[in-house]
Amino acid sequence: MGDLFMYLKYLQIVNYKNLKSVRFNFSQGANTIIGENDCGKSNAVNALRILLDDSYYYNSKKLKDSDFSYDLGEWRGHWIIISAVFVDITTKDKQNEVCAEIVPEQENENFLKSYINSSNQDIGVVTLFIRPQKAIRKKLYEAKSKAEFDEHIKLVKLSDYEFFYTSRSQSDFTDPEVYKSIVGDFELGNYCNPDDDDAAVLGSKLNIADVQEHISVMFVDALRDVANEMRKPRNPIRRIVEAVEAQIDPTDIEKIKEKISELNLSISEVEQIGQIGEQINSKLMDMIGMVYSPEIALESQLNDELNALSRYLSIKPSNQNDIELLGLGHLNMIYMALKLVEYKFNRTRELINIMIIEEPEAHIHTHIQKTLFDNLKLTKDYTQVIMTTHSAHLSEVSEISKINVVKTIGNVSHVMHPILNLDQFGDEKLELKNLKLSDCIERYLDAKRSVLLFSKGVLLVEGDGEEILIPNMVKIGLGVTLDELGIGLINVGSTVFEYIACLFDNDRIQRHCSIITDRDIQAVEVSSSFYSENAEIRGGSRQAKLNRLFENNPWVSTFYAENTFEVEFAKSNDNLTFISGIIDINYSDAATIQRHKKALKGTDQERANTVLTLAKSVGKGWYATLLASKIDESVQIPPYILSAIAFACQEVITTDIKFKMVSYSLSAYGVSNDEMLSIMKGAVSVEEKEQAISRFCETYPSDIVSLFLEKMDNLYLG
What we know:
With 718 residues, the chain is α/β, with parallel strands linked by helices. It has 4 domains: 7-26 and 41-214, no CATH class; 238-339, no CATH class; 418-642, no CATH class; 654-717, no CATH class. It is built from 32 helices and 18 strands. The strands form 4 sheets. The protein has a 6-stranded antiparallel β-sheet. Strands 10-11-12-3-13-14 form a 6-stranded mixed β-sheet, with helices on both faces. A 4-stranded parallel β-sheet has the order 16-15-17-18, with helices on both faces. The radius of gyration is 34 Å and the shape is elongated.
C-alpha cells in the first residue's frame, strides 16, 4: 500500500438550494460529479467553496432566501449545513496545529463504522452552520404554542442569520432525525433550546480562516479569465517562485541583483529621463521657491528582490506573440498546469489541495477532455480533483468508483453512488469468491457506463435481436424514441444480468432498470431440432435466481418472454405480415416459401418452428435488422416488452409525451374519427390533454399506445 495523503472523503449538504439532504463521496485523485443541466452540480461546488475556499467571499450579508432548499417552502428558521469529512490524516499531518484542531479528540466508533466504513481511520471534520442567531433561536424555543411559533417565524430575517463554523463534529446531518435534534420540529412548532447545543453533535467552534490558510481550493470556471488571473500580483507563477526561491543558488541571485542595478543606472542616465527630473525641479521652485523646494531626481528603482521580479515573468506560446491570443480551452489548461506545479512546490505548507474544474466540455475538445482527465488521475499524491460534467465522453473515462451521479426529482436533487456496498452484495448475494464485483463492473462498463449514468431508466437485454428491434418497435409503434422516454438500452450479451442490475438499488443508482429475458419454455414439439429441455431448465433457474435477488428491490424488475423474443414477436397476427416479408427475401424456392407461410398460420408449434428456422438461417441479429426495415405503425410490441418499457420510464413519462403518442397513433387512423381529432386539436391545458388521452384509450382500447398507457396506469396504481 502506498503513502497516505489526507483527502476530502465526504461532503454533506443540507438545505442548500436544490440539495436538500445529500452526501457526496470522494476518493483520492480525480473525481467526477455527473448529472444533467440544472441538477445541482454547480450548487455542490459552490457549497464546498463557501466552506473551504478563502477566495470565495460569502457571508451573512450575501445570504439570499433562494439559497435555502427549494423544497422547504418557508425557509425562515431553517439551517443550511455544509460539512466536510477528511480522512487518511497522518501523524505528520497532525503535527500541524490547524489539522490537530479538526481531528476529534475522542472518535465516535459508531459514526466511523457506519459513515466512514472503518474504525481505524484518523478523520478531520469542518462544518458550517448557517443558522439564526442565538437570540432568535431562543425566541423560537420559548414559543408556547404552534401559533406563537408561527408568528415568531414570520419575523425572522436574513440579517438574523449567522455563519457558525465548527470542527470535530461526528454527525450525519443528512439524517432527518439528527436535523430535528439540533434544529427542531417545525410541524409541531418545537424549536431546540440554543442553551443546550451539544458540542458532540455540532462540534467545537472554529476560526475558519486558520483552516482555509492550509487548505488550497482552486476553481476553474468554464468562463474563467485566465489572462487576467495571470496579471494579478498573487498569480501562480509568483507563488511558485516564492516556493523555489530558497533553492536558487545565491550566486545566481547576486548576478541578477547586479544586472538590475546596472539596468536602473542605465535607465536613469538616459538624457530625456534626466530632463524630466530637471523640469519637475524647475516647476517646484516656481511654485514654492528655492528655500522650500526639495531637490529631486527621476531614477529607475526596479526592485532587485526575486519575489518582486516574478511579477514580470509570463508565459508565452512558442508560436504566438501573446498568451491572450490562445483560445479559452488552452488558457484554462495552462492555468491548471501552473496550479498543479504550485501545489507540488507548496506541499510542505498545504494540508490538502483541491482543484475544482467545472464542465470542461464547455471549452475543451472531446479528445483533449479524455487525455486531460486520464492525466489528472496521476496527480493524486498532492492534489484531489473534483470535476463536474454532463459529458458522456468524460463519463467514459471516469472511474465508476469515483463518480457521484446527481438525479433531480421535482425541486430536489439526490446524489447516487454507483458502487456503494456493491462488493458486499457480491459477497453475500452472488457468493463471489476472491473477486471484487466493483472491479469487474469497472472493466465491463468501459463502453457502456454513459448509458447507465445518464439515462433516466435502463433496459437490459441479452441478445442482438432485442437490441436492434426494440428501439425500432418503440419509435414506429409508439411514435417516440427510447431517448425521448429517457431510456438507455444495454445488451449484456453473455454477461449475467445480476452483475449489472445490482447497480440499481436504494444504496446506489436510484433509477428503474428492466431486465428483459427468456423463460425458454419450449414452444416447439419434442421432435423438433430446436427443442432443448436443458434450455427450459436454465430458463427456470434464471427466473428463480433473478426473482430471489431483486424481489425486494424497487428499482429492478424482470420481464420474461414465455419462449424466446422471436417467438413472442410472432404471437401477434399483426406481426405475421412482417415475418412473411422476410420469408420472401430469404428464400427463392416457391415451395419453401409457401410451406413457411402456411406454418405461420398453423399451430403454435408450427409457427414457432418456422420463426426459429428463419432466425437461424439469417442470424438473429440480421433477422431483427430485416424486421426493423419492414415494420410499420401496425406493429404489435410483445406485452412483456411493453411492460418493461413502462417500468423503465415511469419517472419521466409526462402528459406531453403521452399526448404525442396518442396524436401519432391517431394519425394512423386517418380521418375516420372526426370527433376524436377535434378533441385532440382543442386540448391545450394539461387537464384537457389528459382528458383527450383517456378518450383515445376508451375509443381504441386495443391500440398499442392504449395498451402501453394502461400499463403505465397500473404502475401508478401499484
